[in-house]
């Protein structure tokens, strides 16, 4: 009978999951959430009465992304 390419000792071992502490992930998760909210604001709400910047340059810059994501703009 043919022998296995993996020794029997290694086949019986289970991989140990890597533990990442929450305190290492939390700053990056907060950063990603804030960045996501800023992006959603600029794509979805930066125009008209809620506009933080004068002019229409932000609207024109995000216009196609606005339609792609389903936000009405005009």
UniProtKB/TrEMBL annotation:
Pfam family, one: CbtB
Keywords: Membrane, Transmembrane, Transmembrane helix
Membrane-spanning segments: 25-44
InterPro entries: CbtB_put
Name used for this protein in its record: CbtB domain-containing protein
């Amino acid at each position: 009978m043919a022998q296995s390419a993996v020794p029997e000792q290694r086949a019986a071992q289970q991989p140990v999951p890597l533990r990442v502490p929450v305190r290492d992930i939390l700053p990056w998760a907060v950063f990603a959430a804030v960045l996501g909210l800023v992006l959603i604001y600029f794509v979805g709400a930066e125009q008209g009465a809620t506009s933080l910047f004068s002019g229409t340059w932000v609207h024109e810059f995000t216009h196609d992304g606005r339609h792609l994501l389903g936000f009405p703009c005009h």
